[in-house]
Amino acid sequence: MQTRKILQLTGALLGTLLWGTTTWAGDTVRPIESCGVLSAQDRLSFVLVRSISAQAANCLVIESSNITIDMNGFSIQGFGSGTGILASAPVEGVKIRNGFVQNFAVGISLGGTGNVVENVNVSNNTDTGMFLGASSLVDHVVAQGNLNNGIVMTAAATIKDSTLRANGNNPSSVGLSVGPGSTVTGNTILSSIGTGLFASLGSTVIGNTVFDSNPGSGMSVICPSNVQNNTVTGNTIGNLFLNGIDCNAVNNVAP
């Protein structure tokens, strides 16, 4: 996670973020000082200038597509309910970077397509750490201690170089779940309760490490999929399950 950096904003920062809709004028980079509804033109950027806490169920509700939120190393804290950062379809193309989202029911929920979450920690949420719509990217994310699921992504997802630790509380829970046609590479998934990694058909699952699901299975993949160079060990129900036919399973360590 990047260290907090000095906030440098050029020009006058006009507008006040209230509990409600935010109306802006002036700069294309907007400060976030409290929870509220983000409504702006497409392709604008927002930046946290301090850590914030939810005063109601949801904290940041995004109503515009193609915007970026730089959390600037700060955190968004909840009280066990609602969603930390919420964007419902058809809002799409949201990018979230560099911060912590903790103690909500769902940490981040971006239901539209083409979202990006990178260098973010989602932890200790009472349901799911993160839910992302189709064709979204997760990169260098930590999901830890989320009570039901770690990260859930739908079709054509990409997740790489992320760590999912100690997520789940029952056999139907999952550390990481991706939909059809997804790409899962270089992730570490450990100490899940339930299934460590589930990938639907047509997925590419390469170079992941999944271990110590207890009780639970390590990796479950729907065939046909490409499953290579994964290490799946120490999971109490079983390590690697290939469901169906025509999976290309090569060089996996899954005793």
Describe the overall structure.
The chain is an all-beta fold and 255 residues long. The chain has a domain at 80-250: Pectate Lyase C-like. It is built from no helices and 30 strands. The protein has strands at 13-14, 25-26, 29-32, 36-38, 45-48, 52-53, 60-62, 68-70, 75-77, 83-87, 95-102, 106-110, 116-123, 128-132, 137-139, 142-144, 149-153, 158-160, 163-165, 174-178, 183-185, 188-190, 195-199, 204-206, 209-211, 217-222, 226-228, 231-233, 238-243, 248-250. The protein has an 18-stranded parallel β-sheet that branches. Strands 4-7-10-12-14-17-20-23-26-29 form a ten-stranded parallel β-sheet, with no helix packed on it. The two termini are 34 Å apart.
Provide the structure class: mainly beta
Assigned CATH class of the domain at 80-250: Mainly Beta
Spell the H/E element sequence. EEEEEEEEEEEEEEEEEEEEEEEEEEEEEE
The 3D shape can be described as: globular
Helix residue percentage: under 10%
Radius of gyration: 19 Å
Number of strands: 30
DSSP helical segment count: 0
Give a nutshell description of this structure.
By secondary structure, this protein is an all-beta fold. Helix content is about 0%, strand content about 45%.
